[in-house]
Amino acid sequence: MDGGINMKKRTVPINETKKELVEHSTFFFPLTVSHDDLFSFEEKCIRCHWHDDLEIGIVKQGIVEYQIAETSYFLYPGDAITINSDIPHSAFPVQNSRAIIDTIILQPMFLYDIPGNDLDRTCFHPFLYNTNIPCVPLFQKNSSDKLLIEKLEEIIRLFDSKSDFFQLKIKSLILDYFYMILLNNKNKLKLFSPSNQEHLRKLRIMLDYLHEHYQKPFSLNELAKHTAMSKETCCRIFKHMTGVTISQYLTDYRITQSLKYLCDGNYSIANVSALCGFSSQSRYAKAFRLKIGCNPGKYLHSDFNIIKNHCNSEPCIDFVSVLLKIYAGRFTVIRNDFSSLVSARIFPL
Q1: Which domain CATH number covers 87?
Q2: CATH number of the domain enclosing 294
Q3: Which of 87, 90, 42 is nearest to 65 (CA)?
Q4: Does the residue 43 lie in any domain?
Q5: Full residue range of the structural domain in which residue 231 is found
Q6: Within its chain, how far is the Cα of 265 from the centroid?
Q7: What is the reported pTM?
Q8: How many Cβ atoms from other residues are within 10 Å of residue 329's Cβ?
Q9: Is the dihedral of CA 269, 275, 276, 281 positive or negative?
Q10: Do residues 49 and 90 touch, judged by C-beta distance below 8 A?
Q11: Which of 115-119, 128-132, 287-291, 296-300 has the lowest mean pLDDT?
């Protein structure tokens, strides 16, 4: 990933079951690599979703919180995580800082070729879709993990370079990687617990309801009625599948939705608060501080936000042209500490 910010706002397209719709790979080579800047996503994060493919993320910049079921994993540059098939997961930059992730997505069949063969039955079937192994985090500080991370980095280099016969070398590396993953988790493989498709279906209904009604006062009774479950069951399934309570998820979703209204420039903070379902401006400000790290007003008028908005709107923009645009638009740069912009890697030297 180069130093520039990816300008086009992105989303993770999903179907009615919250499974991702993007084709990450092809029939001829069912593995792909992407370089993801979380600031390029519409909500500056990747919200809860799941898919049949295996996903491997390597943090290149910033600190990323991966929420996998009920556990949060905080990954620093050089750390990695492998997420199993059909496991709900999300990724957030910590303290709203810029975070970049290299992501490998592969179809499980890439590992064993033919369903039902020995590789599938004895090696991968006990691992895939096993909720006892929802993910495998790897940390750069651990020497054994570092060897695995180096294999992943080599896979990414090969995929990007498209050197001669790169597919063959990637296949070799990915099989070696999973050989070591399976070996390190062989005791967990004996306790196979398949993903609960009914719970995934119920979670999809709850997420859809929250996304459609976030601007209105929330009623747990209405959600329970909508899902044909008791209030207790709603809360239990949601917390088990996402790792956060319904209230926590809804507040976080409201905050990220509020960013587009703030940056639009046509709404007061009081208007934004009301539009996003907060009962008062003070409650909105408190929740915003906890999520973003500053007040809505400071976020709206900060020089960081102004510059990042320019960077996100136009391609191939450099540091000087951004400053000229700010001047031309009669924006006020609050701080002249431009070195902090470089150290924050908003702009590379």
Answers
A1: 2.60.120.280
A2: 1.10.10.60
A3: 90
A4: yes
A5: 197-299
A6: 27
A7: 0.74
A8: 9
A9: positive
A10: yes
A11: 296-300
The answer to whether the beta carbons of residues 110 and 30 sit under 8 Å apart is yes
Rg of the chain over Cα atoms, rounded to whole angstroms, equals 22
- Please tell me the distance from the alpha carbon of residue 84 to that of residue 250, in angstroms, as a whole number: 25
At 175-230, the pLDDT tens digits run 999 999 999 999 998 888 888 889 999 999 999 999 999 999 999 999 999 999 99
Kindly state the tokens that stand for 112: 């064993």
SS3 state at 90: strand
Report the percentage of the chain scoring pLDDT > 90: 62
Residues 223-276 have pLDDT tens digits of: 999 999 999 999 999 999 999 999 999 999 999 999 888 888 888 999 999 999
Q: Report how many domains make up the chain.
A: 3
DSSP helix/strand/coil, 49: strand
Residue 117 has pLDDT above 90, yes or no: yes
H or E, element range at 82: strand 80-83
Rounded Cα gap, residues 169 and 148, in angstroms: 15
- What contacts 25, CB < 8 A, 6 or more positions away? 31, 32, 53, 105, 106, 107, 110
* Vertex 64: Cα angle to 9 and 86 (nearest 5): 80
